[in-house]
Specification:
Distance between the termini: 115 Å
Membrane topology: Multi-pass membrane protein
Subcellular location: Endomembrane system
Strand order of the largest sheet: 4-3-2-1-5
Family: Belongs to the MscS (TC 1.A.23) family.
Number of helices: 17
Pfam families: MS_channel_2nd, MS_channel_3rd
Protein name: Mechanosensitive ion channel family protein
Largest sheet: 5 strands, antiparallel
Amino acid sequence: MDERLRHQIAEWLTAIGIDAQPSEGIPTLVLIIASLVTALIAYIIVRRGVIRAINVVIKRSKASWDDSFMHFKVLEKLALLVPALVINLLIPIALSEHALLSSVVDRLLSVAIVVLMIRAAYASLDAANEIADINLVSRRMPIKSFVQLCKLFLFFVGIILCISVLANQSPVIFLSSLGVATGLVMLVFRDTILGFVAGIQLAANRMVSQGDWIQMDKYGANGSIEEISLTTVKVRNWDNTLTMIPAYALVQDAFKNWRGMSESGGRRITRSVNIDVDSIRFLTIEDINRLERINLLKEYLAGMKQQLTEYNQSIESGDDPVNGRYLTNVGTFRAYMKEYLLKSEHTRKDMTMLVRQLEPGPTGLPIQIYVFTNDTRWGFYEDIQADLFDHVFAILPEFGLRPFQNPTGEDMRNINTQLLRRRGTQPTAPTQQ
């Protein structure tokens, strides 16, 4: 068939005045040009006609996932396969009289087809990754890690296929030879293999997801996860610095994930105010009458007065606090703070809420407030916490309580001044050098 085609082309060239008999190069050249023109026409039809029509349909579509394929030009990359396949089909016919050249061109075209197919597959994987980001699937699973792994696998498959095509050998031979170099492969791609295994564990156990707030002091990471790749996890710290953590480190080392706090809608406050033990005492009747003007304590004081009166009368304790039960300023303060937290618009009433005593120490009696805020955002959380303890320190004098504070330099100077005055000596101002 090739000979007949060549003979017809030679007769046609002779008829139009071109001497094609002395050399077979002219019919071969015409066949090559015809093959290239046919491939170009096929590409134009697919690229300008079919793909343009599909893109119009995608733009008019209400679905959002197909826009990613248009963004990464998946169809355009697939269209490049059409002229390559056409040329691969027609060039051997044109070069049938040149066996060596035909073989070389055929192998090169096969390599080009493999490269174009892998390129289109890469674009499809990128589109799938973007679709996962849009649908928030990547927040639950490290999709990018699997995409990178697939790209790496396709890269090696492409390399093996290209080498086997150029060497005119079966790919199985090259795959079997890789077994000898397993040790080298393990050494070179150690982080990749560990990252892949870690990625599977992270995804299966849902240890981390994109957007999670994690804290890992070993690597100086304290911020939000921006990206989970095959080998690294990118964390944007709260000071806008970036920390790259090896993926396998999240499996091997300890870290703190604040996702549970964010999902629960409550963030915990655990802070104490240390009370000077010397300021703790029983409340007098005058103290109780004075504190009854506080709305948050009216119900508590009324109930406690009745309860304590009935108890003290039952045991005939008299008026001596040693023999009965009486209100203390620190206990009343705890009751006030509990009611204050219950009435606050910034606390979660369905979560643990405590105002408790901790073990006293050299710095006084710690009164700890254990409560959850209803806003987990960092700035708002800090504002709520600061406002809460502003109120705590400001209200303490109402109960006759003093916060514990180590003596300052001013305290020591006042003590020294008082001692000198008792001795009848006036303190002297420091001399200037």
